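ESCALATION

Customer reports they have been waiting on this structure for their group meeting. Please prioritize. Original submission:
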Amino acid sequence: MSTGHVEYASLNGTHIFKLFGEVRAQSCISLDKLLSKIEQQSNVVGAIVDLTQTTFIDSTVLGVLAKLGLKLKQVHQIQAVMLSTNPDITTLANSMGLGQVFVILNYCGDPTVCTRELVEEHVTHSNMLTTVLDAHKTLMKLNENNQNMFEPLVKQLQKEQDTLDQCAENNQQNV
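Update from on-call: job pushed to the front of the queue and completed.
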């Protein structure tokens, strides 16, 4: 179970995401759904991802954040900002290629920024699988190292996704 969480705020088209503690895949379902909504908004002017209070971040979370950065660049022509004061987190983010889609700054920020915790979605195996698979596919797009590192995992997850889809299809035909 995740011991961290994600908080979110928005003001005049600027979206702020603050990650606390050990943020793992379980925290990503709500974040991923929120990103899909933001992508469709027309008034997006900026985004800040604050990792200054993050102690651990897994590859699924990094993949969802990469998706945010890529979509903001592609859809809104905006380069998002990532704040990080933890050298390990900064190094990890850069090694995964997030420096290509974010401006990564070493900044402590204002602790009084008003964000609200994202409510964790009911996590099913299917939506967790979809989020993890999509996050890692996004990381693979960032650089060749990620492509090589995550290709076996993505192939395995894709097989599992295909099996689940086939089972669901068979169940609907039997109804």
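Sent to customer with the following note: Residues 13 and 45 are 5 Å apart (CA to CA).
Escalation resolved.
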